[in-house]
Amino acid sequence: MPIVGVSCSVLSPWDAEVHHSVFDPYVRALVVYAGVNPVLVPALGDGSCGQPENMRALLARLDGLVLTGSPSMVQPSLYDGTPSAPGTHHDPARDATTLPMIGLAITLGVPLLGICRGAQELNCVAGGTLHQAVHTLPGKLDHRAPKGVATQGDKYKPAHDVECTPNGWLEAIALEAGVDPRRVPVNSLHQQAIDRLGRDLIVEARSSDGSVEAIRVASAKSFALAVQWHPEWHVEDQPMNRALLERFGVACRARAEATSPGTADLSGVFA
Description:
The chain is an alpha/beta fold and 271 residues long. It has a single domain (3-258), classed as Rossmann fold (3-Layer(aba) Sandwich). It has helices at residues 24-34, 52-60, 92-108, 117-125, 152-155, 169-176, 239-258; strands spanning 3-7, 9-11, 19-21, 37-41, 64-67, 112-115, 130-131, 160-164, 184-186, 193-194, 201-207, 212-217, 224-227. A nine-stranded mixed beta sheet has the order 4-1-5-6-13-12-11-8-9, with helices on both faces. A two-stranded antiparallel ribbon has the order 2-3. The protein has a two-stranded antiparallel ribbon with strand order 7-10. The longest helix is centred in the last third of the chain and has 20 residues, at 239-258.
């Protein structure tokens, strides 16, 4: 099975120790629906894993990269934004790890799937900007997670539809899945959203309020797509989510077959 890196977030839970964390649905969905082996990429920031030569060595051994969502927000200094509101949760170690890795993955042709924060990270790497609180803008929907739901899973049920860009990658995936590309149901759990689109990015879907819901790297050598929703949840009930993960898995298998095993030098990756 292809080996796919999954970006971690830094959390300090009940024991006050730092944890490099990924929610279970990400890795489970990748195994079951994408047919890949996930490995966690720690958010070491500018530590050993964050050095360009070590990132390159790590990516050379990966067949894909998934940029996960997170409760944290991308630091506004990374896209020339205004200071965040007091109490905003940031994750500078993740930013310092994931953002440099995105550009390198695209350069090396490593298939890339961005999810929620991952879509925002991709846009920032491409020189785009973000809305920090899209729900406060005139005419915009409240895209934040629903409150007062009974279970965690209920948060990730479809909240609104998105419309795929005609003749785009996402439209093709929707049609293959038997989903109307003009009305794709998605969940919604984000406060930040794409403002100015980054260089070499194509909008693949928007919500009814015009918010960008999916982007693609136009010149990428392989699969390089990011969505604002969470396709790792309720995959069994959502054909679009299943098709998206399956298509990513196909790209990862293609890279695995095209790359000779054991050629990359991993010395020093975790030194």
